Amino acid sequence: MAKTIVLTGASDGIGAAAAIQLAARGHRLILAGRSKDKLRAVAERVGAADAFVADFEDLGAVRGLAEQILGRCDRIDVLANNAGGVFDGPKRTGDGFERTFQVNHLGPFLLTNLLLQPLLAAGATVVATSSVASRLYARLDLADVNTWNDFSPMRAYGNAKLANILFTKGLHERYSSAGISAVALHPGVVATNFAAGTRTFSRLLYQTPLKVFLTSAASGGARLARFASGRPGHDWESGEYYEAPGKPGRFRLESPLDEAVASLWDQSSALVRLD
Ligand SMILES: NC(=O)c1ccc[n+]([C@@H]2O[C@H](COP(=O)([O-])OP(=O)(O)OC[C@H]3O[C@@H](n4cnc5c(N)ncnc54)[C@H](OP(=O)(O)O)[C@@H]3O)[C@@H](O)[C@H]2O)c1
After folding, report:
1. What residue ranges define each of the domains in the chain, with the CATH number in brackets?
2. pTM for this prediction
3. Which of 2, 5, 63, 97 has the fewest CB atoms nearer than 10 Å to its CB?
4. Residue 178 C-alpha to ligand 1 middle, in angstroms?
């Protein structure tokens, strides 16, 4: 059955590859990206119903994106929060938050909450593109969710990707009884534009000839598309994080899970001023 799928980070890499594969299965796509030209090229290629530009470094743009989407549909079957990446820093956005935390977590947190009505109407699936960085690099301090202290691009990235998993669990806790399912996934180590804007060692792997050793964008996109179109309770369990299809993932968290899920949700709501 054709679904209405909202996909962020659709202008490049894993998101663009997933868009191509989901469109081939006849789904109606609403795409979001940061770069207008790149997004337009993908939208034209896949025949997307809509394509909206928004830079998640600006939460006003995220609110604008939600309004545009709300103007186009009253039901959303799948929201794939895929936009993200690793960035140098720490850098304070105009909203006052650390960029890596805002782009990877606060933006998707706000967008998802602003789209709750059409998500609830459809009994939707919310997918988060997380990462094994949540196990390898995360050292989350709940008193410093932005990672201002002891900042390194990879620690901030790991913490933000852990936040994707904690948000997935929070969504499940709050909304599974109302019909929403939530899942987080690691897409593989995929040759994309990832880490292009950093000076981290990741850049060496992703942006030099070494990238031939990585998985293709098409296979990362296939994994995202598989979770996005999968059946909760059958293909994956709601509230879970997977390192690969059928393989629940591990993540590094030093505080009790329930406390971290609740604390991150409450702090995020307050930071983005959710009514
Ligand atoms: N590649 C990997 O090995 C890997 C592994 C684990 C997890 N991931 C995750 O997979 C997701 C997709 O990454 P990718 O590998 O496909 O990298 P990519 O090729 O760099 O694509 C990233 C996507 O996110 C968008 N984006 C980046 N910053 C943004 C911002 N400030 N506002 C709005 N959109 C923004 C980009 O938009 P523009 O292109 O328009 O700038 C692009 O569409 C990310 O969440 C990443 O953390 C990747």
Report:
1. 4-188+221-271 (3.40.50.720)
2. 0.97
3. 2
4. 30
